[in-house]
Write a sequence for this structure.
């Protein structure tokens, strides 16, 4: 049974999963029933092909007919003052008592989250690990200032498994309120019990992800699904860039909500070769069987439909490159059997071999009490005495052990979150198309608050002023901007 099936389409991890399922069939001599589950399928035909790429058994699509659940939705807009105007008076700086001042817009968002979600069970999707840390510590300090219990927990991929599981256990305990501030880690796949409301800062990455998040709330009969979205835009002045004037963050959020309400989801990519994962599975097959003939590997990995776009010529080319002395992944015995080469043997003996994604080099963050909080990228410099926010709390770095790649911290009262890295993917073409429609129209969705209405109006005014209804280019100083 494959839960959240859509998350595996045409991805390295999906190809690995398909390959392992095919290898299980071959190893057992059976073809067990495969069941895929998803609430956000854009293409049911593609889902059927994923489950049975060799078409050895028919696939039946079972669609839920339930619906009609009440939806409570709001998009809230906030203005972030220009950085020059946010600077503190001379001599004070932006850091007070070691604490970096959050922007007024973020403070306003956190205040609204605190007033609406405290005492409930909720998820707050902050958009990035750094923003998770900022929001969690701000909510914790707001709870302390109000003299009430802290109900807000941080949850993201850089936190230790122990820390994440503690947060998940707290969320499952329905006898008391709790809210998790998270990234996509709690978007799907983890049971955290009943959720009253969902909040999201920024437009998010995908429409299907937004739908998954919305679906986390209101799962009990008679309970509505509740979602609030928060967008921040820069205050406009004489030095503002025209892209700020377009209020693209707000318009993108509206476009994604509209598409979600029309039950649209991003279509998955199709036809990638996934040669890296193919090499991985060739080596895995050798590790499973002790050795394999090229024709048998081709039958199990390509003829099975898993790596269907790869033909025999390309498969042979991949094998030759893997067997090159410079590479050393595989070698061929005199009888034609493919065996693991020196580098292949080393990889097969490593536990890291079982994952088909890169694991970055990181420093482990531990408290002076011995608890592991999580890890931070190795390319982020840390020095003793430095202040930081991590796991929703403030810390001071006591020691940095470069040899063991460990950072020892103790509780403090200042700091800022580390930079975790990562890139934001561009929106899907359908989102861009809906954004363009919104700019050119005059309808205002009912779910916008007054702040979001003002931002939408400003964006439309800039769109008209730049003549983007008739042109795909605009000038800003010496820059030429293209709007495909």
């Amino acid at each position: 049974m494959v839960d959240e099936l859509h998350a595996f389409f045409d991805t390295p991890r999906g190809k690995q999963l398909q390959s392992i399922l095919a290898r299980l069939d071959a190893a057992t001599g059976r073809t067990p029933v495969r069941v895929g589950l998803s609430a956000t399928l854009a293409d049911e035909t593609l889902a059927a092909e994923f489950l049975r790429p060799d078409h050895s058994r028919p696939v039946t699509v079972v669609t839920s007919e339930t619906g009609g659940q009440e939806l409570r939705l709001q998009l809230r807009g906030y203005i972030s003052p220009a950085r020059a105007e946010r600077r503190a008076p001379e001599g004070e700086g932006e850091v007070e008592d070691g604490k970096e001042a959050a922007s007024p817009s973020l403070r306003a968002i956190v205040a609204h989250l605190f007033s609406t979600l405290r005492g409930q069970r909720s998820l707050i999707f902050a958009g990035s690990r750094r923003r998770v840390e900022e929001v969690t510590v701000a909510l914790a300090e707001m709870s302390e200032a109000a003299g009430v219990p802290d109900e807000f927990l941080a949850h993201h991929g850089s936190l230790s498994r122990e820390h994440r599981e503690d947060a998940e256990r707290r969320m499952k305990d329905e006898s008391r309120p709790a809210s998790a501030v998270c990234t996509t880690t709690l978007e799907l796949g983890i049971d955290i019990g009943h959720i009253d409301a969902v909040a999201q800062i920024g437009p998010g990455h995908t429409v299907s992800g937004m739908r998954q998040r919305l679906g986390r709330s209101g799962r009990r009969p008679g309970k509505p699904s509740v979602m609030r979205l928060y967008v921040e835009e820069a205050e406009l002045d004489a030095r503002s860039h025209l892209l700020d004037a377009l209020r693209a963050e707000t318009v993108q959020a509206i476009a994604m909500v509209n598409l979600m309400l029309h039950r649209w989801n991003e279509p998955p990519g199709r036809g990638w070769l996934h040669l890296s994962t193919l090499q991985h599975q060739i080596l895995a097959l050798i590790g499973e069987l002790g050795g394999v003939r090229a024709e048998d590997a081709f039958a199990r990995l390509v003829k099975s439909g898993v790596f269907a776009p790869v033909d025999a010529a390309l498969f042979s080319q991949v094998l030759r490159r893997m067997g090159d002395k410079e590479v050393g992944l595989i070698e061929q015995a005199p009888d034609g059997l493919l065996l693991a080469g020196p580098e292949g043997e080393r990889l097969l003996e490593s536990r890291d071999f079982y994952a088909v994604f890169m694991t970055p080099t990181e420093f482990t963050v531990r408290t002076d009490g011995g608890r592991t909080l999580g890890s931070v990228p190795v390319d982020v410099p840390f020095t003793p005495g430095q202040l930081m926010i991590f796991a929703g709390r403030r810390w001071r770095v006591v020691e940095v052990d470069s040899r063991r790649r460990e950072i020892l911290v103790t509780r403090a009262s200042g700091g800022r979150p580390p930079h975790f890295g990562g890139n934001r993917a561009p929106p899907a073409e359908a989102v861009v198309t809906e954004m363009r429609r919104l700019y050119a129209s005059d309808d205002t969705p009912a779910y916008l608050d007054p702040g979001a209405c003002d931002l939408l109006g400003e964006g439309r005014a800039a769109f008209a002023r730049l003549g983007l209804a008739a042109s795909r280019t605009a000038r800003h100083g010496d820059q030429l901007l293209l709007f495909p």
User: Anything to note?
Assistant: The first strand starts at residue 71 and ends at 80.
